[in-house]
C-alpha cells in the first residue's frame, strides 16, 4: 500500500508539473536569436562593432580549450583542467563586460559636452542634421566616428529619421537614446524650447556624472574584494595541483564534488558581492 501510494503521489506530482509548464506562467526558453541579440548589444556597448556574437563564441571555445590543454599538460588532472577550461571560456565575456562598463563611464563624462555643442548649434541657427554632423569634427574624440557615419549617411540618403536610428545603434548608450529621441520629437513636432531643454539636460547629466563618480570611488573596493576572494582559492588550487597527493585526491568522485560545490559557491558569492556593490545603471528603454 505504501509503494502504491508513493507511486500515485509521484504520478500526481509529475502531472501537476506538466500542467504548470504548459500554462502561461511556464518558464520560456530563450530563443537563440534573442541570446545572439543580447550579445550583439553587449559588443556594441563595449565599442566592439567589428566582432559578431559567433566570433565571440569561437574565441570563448578557443581560450577554454587552450586553458584546458595547458593545465592538463601541467598537472595531468582532468578534473582541475576542466575547471580552468571553464574559467578560460568565461574570460572573453568578462573582458567585454568590463570594456562596456568602462566605455559607459567614459561616455558619461562627455555627454554634457555633446549636449552643449548641440545647444550652441541650435542657438546659432543650424538645422538639426547640421548640428549633429558638426559633432564629427567639434565633438568629443570618442564619439566623432558615430557622428561622422551619421553625417555621411545623411548626405547620401537625406532620411533624417532612419539616420537617427542608425546613430542610436552606433552610440549604444541610454543617454544617446534620450538625446536622439529629443531631437526626433523636435524635428517632427517643432517648438522653440529645444535649446532650453538641451541646456537643462546638460546640467542634469553633469550632476549625475559627478555623483556617480563619487559613489563608484567609494564602492570600488567591494568589487575588488569580490574578485580577490573568488580568485584566491583557485590560485591556491593551481599551486597545490603540482603535488601528486593533491592530484589523486581531486581525481576521485569526492574531489570532483568538492570542486563543483566550491565553484558554485564562488559563483554565487561573486554575483552577490557584485550586486551589493553595483550602482543602478540606466536602461535603454528608447531603443
What is the average per-residue confidence, as pLDDT, rounded to a whole number?
79
Q: Estimate the global geometry from the Cα principal axes.
A: elongated
Secondary-structure element order, as H and E?
HHHHHHHHHHH
Number of helices: 11
Structural class: mainly alpha
Beta fraction of the residues? under 5%
Oligomer: single chain
Number of strands: 0
Instruction: Note the gap between the termini.
Output: 61 Å
Give the fraction of residues assigned to helices.
over 70%
Instruction: Work out the radius of gyration.
Output: 26 Å
Instruction: Outline the low-pLDDT stretches.
Output: none
Largest sheet: none
Pfam families: T2SSF
Organism: Goekera deserti
Main location: membrane
Membrane topology: Multi-pass membrane protein
Walkthrough of the structure:
The chain has 287 residues and is an all-alpha fold. The protein has a domain at 108-209. Helix content is 82%, strand content 0%. It contains 11 helices and no strands. Helix 4 (78-123) packs antiparallel against helix 9. It is elongated and about 80 Å long. The chain starts with a helix and ends in a 10-residue tail after the last helix.
Amino acid at each position: 500500500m505504501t509503494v502504491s501510494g508513493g507511486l500515485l503521489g509521484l504520478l500526481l506530482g509529475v502531472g501537476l508539473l506538466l500542467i504548470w509548464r504548459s500554462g502561461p506562467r511556464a518558464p520560456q526558453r530563450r530563443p537563440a536569436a534573442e541570446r545572439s541579440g543580447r550579445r550583439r548589444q553587449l559588443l556594441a556597448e563595449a565599442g566592439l562593432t567589428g566582432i559578431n556574437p559567433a566570433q565571440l563564441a569561437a574565441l570563448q571555445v578557443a581560450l577554454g580549450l587552450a586553458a584546458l590543454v595547458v593545465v592538463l599538460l601541467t598537472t595531468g588532472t582532468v578534473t582541475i583542467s576542466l575547471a580552468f577550461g571553464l574559467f578560460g571560456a568565461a574570460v572573453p565575456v568578462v573582458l567585454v563586460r568590463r570594456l562596456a562598463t568602462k566605455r559607459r563611464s567614459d561616455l558619461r563624462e562627455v555627454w554634457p559636452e555633446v549636449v552643449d555643442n548641440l545647444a550652441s548649434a541650435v542657438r546659432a541657427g543650424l538645422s538639426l542634421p547640421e548640428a549633429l554632423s558638426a559633432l564629427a569634427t567639434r565633438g568629443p574624440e570618442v564619439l566623432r566616428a558615430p557622428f561622422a557615419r551619421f553625417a555621411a549617411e545623411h548626405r547620401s540618403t537625406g532620411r533624417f529619421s532612419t539616420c537617427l536610428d542608425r546613430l542610436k545603434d552606433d552610440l549604444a548608450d541610454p543617454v544617446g537614446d534620450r538625446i536622439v529621441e529629443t531631437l526626433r520629437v523636435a524635428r517632427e513636432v517643432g517648438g522653440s524650447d529645444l535649446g532650453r531643454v538641451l541646456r537643462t539636460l546638460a546640467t542634469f547629466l553633469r550632476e549625475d556624472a559627478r555623483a556617480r563618480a563619487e559613489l563608484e570611488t567609494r564602492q570600488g573596493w567591494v568589487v575588488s574584494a569580490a574578485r580577490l576572494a573568488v580568485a584566491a582559492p583557485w590560485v591556491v588550487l593551481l599551486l597545490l595541483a603540482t603535488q601528486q597527493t593533491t592530484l589523486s585526491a581531486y581525481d576521485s568522485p569526492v574531489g570532483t564534488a568538492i570542486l563543483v560545490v566550491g565553484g558554485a559557491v564562488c559563483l554565487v558569492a561573486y554575483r552577490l558581492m557584485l550586486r551589493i556593490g553595483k550602482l543602478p545603471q540606466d536602461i535603454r528603454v528608447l531603443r
